[in-house]
Structures are given as structure tokens and as C-alpha cells.
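Per your request, structure below.
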């Protein structure tokens, strides 16, 4: 009962004093000595000290763990803010107060939010970097599979914006490349259509994704694809240019052969699809199949057939070329021996020693040289035309001035009067025109080393003779003026002696310088006869040029027209004057 009561009392009171009192009671009952009691109390005190020390150690360790947790939380908070590029955060208190646990409780929500924000930021980085990696692989042609590694130490918005900016640049480049690819594909399609080639086979050789069955966004935009597309387009354009040149050459040959053989339009129309591109540029040829190989082969076969047909019509073709050559020389007023040339052509064809193509090529060269010669003479011939026209007007003006009824009010008199005014202006320009013509002709002869022939006559000889006859005419006019003054003086003296004035003697008209056209044909003085100028013998040097030291040309008999009026015929009226051209 005593033990049970002691246990109950121990349960009821838990203080050290009550336990010590209870222990003393027990010792008194037992009869423990003081020495034993002190020993036991010392042992009890030692055990209590050890318990306290354990508890203190435990509490100290727990505090250290909490402090470490708080330090780790602060460090993690700092690292998160640094990784996210944030200097501050709204949920973080400016200064932590309270116990350690309170401080941990205050910082825990902020850490949770920052961890969540970090996870979201990592997803954004991963998504952007994945797109960058994908587009970069599409551009380089090295498509890599897998998730890129995100640098969790730098998740700042600045870094994210840089990556997004890089992504936007790559997206723009991808868009540009895709447009280039589509443009290249469209160009290849058009070129293949014009050249008659299979587009599907051609584009598949570049890259299988470029066919129409593949979506636009799935088409290859790599550097190799763009390079191969550019090479393909360049090769097709070169092929197009070569085929166009070939078909233009064939079209030109067909046209020449048709013109030579006077092929009817119905037969020519069969090859309109060939000749329609004879002068077209490369970019202008867009009709599908316009430069197909089978079309070129058809044109080659037709040219070969016409060449064989041309050989059988060689004489007709050669004489047609000869006629063209003669026409060029005739327009240039160059004399050639046409009959001998035609006989030579006929002999060459009959002998068979000359290839038809060589003969035609030689005649083409002759035509080319004749055209060049005509061009070199063009300026001088134009001035010869002006000179001859002026001489014709001069001849007409001479006849007009001799007409006594020119001022009568007859029909058409005013028209002749206007023509006379224009003719006088034109005649006054003849000396300067002749001087210019002489200078240009001499320069032409000095450059080429032979005389300038006009219908077989040296042009300078014609000009020299014209200048000589014009000089003779001026002398004749001066003589007539002196004769007129003499008769007027004689009439005045007779009037003073006899008191009456006899009718003056009509002087002879001056010699008339007829232009080269009138002198040539011997036709009417105011008409337009042939161009050949009759010339007397004129010595020339060995190289065909005129010799200025030899005798001058004498005018032909029909080159000067003498007035038919009687030198002693009388005219009424003392006021009549002799009309002459200025």
C-alpha cells in the first residue's frame, strides 16, 4: 500500500522538490547514511545535468538547422531573383523580424511563387530555343531532334527577348527563303513548260519536298536546296537561250530560203510557231513548248529539205542576187559589166566546180561590199542631186529670162514668177555647193586612192567643166554689157546730131550654161533628161585618178546653147533691157 501511495503521489506531483522530499522519506525509512545519501544526490544531480545538456544540444542543433534553412531560403531567393533577372520582388518583406520559424514562414510563399515563375520561364526558354534550333536546322539542312538544354542560371527577360528577337529574325529569314524557293519553283515550272521538259522529274532531282504534293511550310529551305535551285534555273535559262538562238538561226534560214525560192504563204504558215520568235528576246518567249526539242528537229529537217531544193534552183537564185547587186550599183551610179558577171555565174554553176553555198556566200559578200560602197558615196551623191537640180533650175531661169511675154497677165504667169524667185535663190547657192562637192569628192578620192566615178565619168571632171563653162558664160555676159553701153552711147550721139534716136541694135544673148542633166540627154532645157554627161577625152594617171597637169576638158558641142536671135534685129522702145540670170 505504501508503494502504491508513493506511485500515486509521484503521478500527482512532478516537481523536483516533491520528488526529493519523497526520496528523503524513503531514505529515512530505509535508514540510508548521510554519506550514501550525498553520493546518491550527487549522482542524481549529474544525471539531471546530462539530461539538460542533451536537451540543450538538441535545441542548439534544431536552431542551427532552422538557421541553415533560413540562410538557404535567402540564398535560394537571391539566386532565383538573379536567375530571373529581378532586382526585387513584391512579396519579399524589406526586413525580416520575429523568430526563425516566423521568418521562414514569411519567406516560404515568395519562394514558392518564384519557383513557379522559374518553371514557367524555363518552359518559355525551351519553346523558343526549340523553334530556333528547328529553323536553324532547316536553314543549314541539318535537322536535329531533341529538346535543347536551357541555362537555368540566366532566365532573365532580357535574355528571353534576345532569344525571341533571334527567333523572329530566323522566322523572317525562313519566310524570305520560302518565297525564294517558291519563286525558283515557279521559274523552273515556266522554263520546263517552254522547253517541253518534265517539271516533276526536274524539281524532284533538286529536292523531293518541292513537289506540289508537299505543303508549303514543309518545303526545304536549306542552303543546299536554294543553291541547287539557283543552279537548275541557271542551267534551264542557259538551255533556253541556246535553244532560242538555235531556233532563231533556223527561222532566219527558213525565211531566207523562202524569200529566195518565193515560197507561198500557205507553206510558210506551217512554221509560224518557229518564225514568230525570230526577233524575240529570251524573256518574251513564254508559250509552252515553244522551244521543245522536237520543234527544233522539225525546223532542222525543213531547212535541210529547202537546202536540197535550193540546189536545183541555183541559177534562178544566183541571178536574183546579181539583180540585187546591179540595183545597188545603179542607185549608187557605179557602172559594172552586168553581162560578163552573169556569164561568169552561169559558167560556174554549169561547171559544178563551185559549191552553191560558196557561190551565194561570195555574192552576199559582193552585195555587202556594194552596200558599204554606196553608203560611202551617199553624202556626195545627195549633193550631186542638189547640184543637178540647181542646174536644171538655172537652165529654166535662162529660158524664162529670154521670154519677152513673161510679165504678161497670162494664165500661170504668177506661178512662173514665184518659181523664178526661188530659182534665183537656188542658183546663187550653186558656187558654194560646187566648192563643197569638190572638197568632199577630193577627200573621198584621197582616202580611197581612186577617182569618184559618176555613171562612168569622173565627178571632178564634170565639176571642172561646169566651172569652166560658167566662167565662159560670165565673160559673155560682161561682153554683152559692154556692147550695150557702147550702143547706148552711140544712140545718144546720133540723137544729138540728127535729132532723132534710132532703135537700138538688140545684142546677142549670152551663152547658156546647161546643167549636167540637160547636157547628158540633149533634151529640152527645162526638162529632166538622162544623167550621163558627155565628156571629151581627158588624160588620167595609171591609178585612174585625174591628172590636173594635163589639158582641161573642152565642152561638148551641145553643152552651150547659143541664142537664136539676130544680132542686128531691132526692138521697139528705148527702155528695154537684156534679162539675165543673177
Amino acid at each position: 500500500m505504501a508503494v502504491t501511495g508513493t506511485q500515486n503521489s509521484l503521478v500527482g506531483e512532478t516537481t523536483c522538490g516533491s520528488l526529493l522530499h519523497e526520496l528523503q522519506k524513503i531514505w529515512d525509512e530505509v535508514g540510508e547514511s548521510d554519506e550514501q545519501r550525498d553520493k546518491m544526490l550527487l549522482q542524481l544531480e549529474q544525471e539531471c545535468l546530462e539530461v539538460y545538456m542533451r536537451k540543450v544540444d538538441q535545441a542548439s542543433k534544431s536552431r542551427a538547422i532552422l538557421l541553415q534553412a533560413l540562410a538557404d531560403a535567402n540564398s535560394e531567393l537571391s539566386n532565383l531573383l538573379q536567375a530571373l533577372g529581378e532586382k526585387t520582388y513584391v512579396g519579399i518583406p524589406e526586413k525580416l523580424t520575429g523568430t526563425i520559424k516566423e521568418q521562414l514562414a514569411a519567406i516560404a510563399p515568395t519562394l514558392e511563387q518564384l519557383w513557379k515563375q522559374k518553371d514557367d520561364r524555363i518552359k518559355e526558354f525551351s519553346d523558343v530555343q526549340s523553334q530556333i534550333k528547328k529553323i536553324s536546322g532547316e536553314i543549314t539542312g541539318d535537322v536535329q531532334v531533341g529538346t535543347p538544354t536551357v541555362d537555368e542560371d540566366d532566365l532573365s527577360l532580357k535574355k528571353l527577348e534576345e532569344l525571341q528577337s533571334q527567333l523572329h529574325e530566323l522566322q523572317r529569314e525562313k519566310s524570305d527563303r520560302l518565297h525564294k524557293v517558291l519563286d525558283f519553283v515557279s521559274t523552273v515550272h515556266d522554263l520546263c513548260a517552254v522547253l517541253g521538259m518534265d517539271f516533276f522529274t526536274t524539281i524532284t532531282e533538286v529536292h523531293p519536298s518541292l513537289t506540289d504534293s508537299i505543303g508549303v511550310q514543309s518545303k526545304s529551305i536549306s542552303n543546299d536546296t536554294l543553291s541547287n535551285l539557283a543552279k537548275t534555273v541557271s542551267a534551264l535559262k542557259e538551255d533556253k537561250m541556246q535553244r532560242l538562238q538555235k531556233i532563231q538561226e533556223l527561222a532566219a534560214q527558213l525565211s531566207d530560203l523562202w524569200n529566195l525560192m518565193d515560197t507561198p504563204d500557205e507553206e510558210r504558215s506551217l512554221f509560224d510557231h518557229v518564225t514568230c520568235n525570230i526577233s524575240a528576246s529570251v524573256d518574251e518567249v513564254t508559250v509552252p513548248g515553244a522551244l521543245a526539242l522536237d520543234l527544233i528537229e522539225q525546223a532542222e529537217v525543213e531547212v535541210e529539205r529547202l537546202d536540197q531544193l535550193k540546189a536545183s534552183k541555183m541559177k534562178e537564185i544566183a541571178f536574183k542576187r546579181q539583180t540585187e547587186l546591179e540595183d545597188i550599183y545603179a542607185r549608187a551610179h557605179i557602172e559594172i559589166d552586168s553581162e560578163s558577171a552573169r556569164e561568169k555565174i552561169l559558167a560556174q554553176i554549169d561547171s559544178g566546180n563551185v559549191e552553191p553555198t560558196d557561190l551565194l556566200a561570195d555574192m552576199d559578200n559582193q552585195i555587202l561590199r556594194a552596200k558599204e560602197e554606196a553608203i560611202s558615196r551617199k553624202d556626195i551623191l545627195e549633193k550631186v542631186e542638189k547640184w543637178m537640180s540647181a542646174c536644171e533650175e538655172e537652165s529654166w531661169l535662162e529660158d524664162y529670162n529670154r521670154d519677152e511675154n513673161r510679165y504678161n497677165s497670162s494664165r500661170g504667169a504668177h506661178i512662173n514668177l514665184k518659181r523664178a524667185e526661188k530659182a534665183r535663190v537656188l542658183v546663187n547657192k550653186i558656187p558654194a555647193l560646187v566648192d563643197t562637192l569638190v572638197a568632199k569628192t577630193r577627200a573621198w578620192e584621197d582616202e580611197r586612192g581612186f577617182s569618184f566615178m559618176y555613171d562612168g565619168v569622173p565627178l571632178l571632171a564634170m565639176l571642172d567643166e561646169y566651172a569652166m563653162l560658167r566662167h565662159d558664160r560670165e565673160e559673155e555676159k560682161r561682153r554683152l554689157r559692154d556692147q550695150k553701153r557702147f550702143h547706148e552711147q552711140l544712140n545718144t550721139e546720133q540723137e544729138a546730131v540728127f535729132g532723132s534716136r534710132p532703135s537700138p541694135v538688140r545684142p546677142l544673148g549670152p551663152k547658156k550654161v546647161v546643167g549636167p542633166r540637160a547636157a547628158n540627154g540633149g533634151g529640152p532645157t527645162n526638162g529632166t533628161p538622162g544623167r550621163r554627161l558627155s565628156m571629151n577625152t581627158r588624160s588620167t594617171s595609171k591609178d585612174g585618178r585625174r591628172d590636173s597637169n594635163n589639158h582641161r576638158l573642152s565642152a561638148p558641142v551641145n553643152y552651150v546653147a547659143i541664142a537664136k536671135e539676130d544680132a542686128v534685129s531691132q526692138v521697139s522702145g528705148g527702155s528695154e533691157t537684156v534679162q539675165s540670170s543673177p
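The two ends are 184 Å apart (CA to CA).

Regards,
D.
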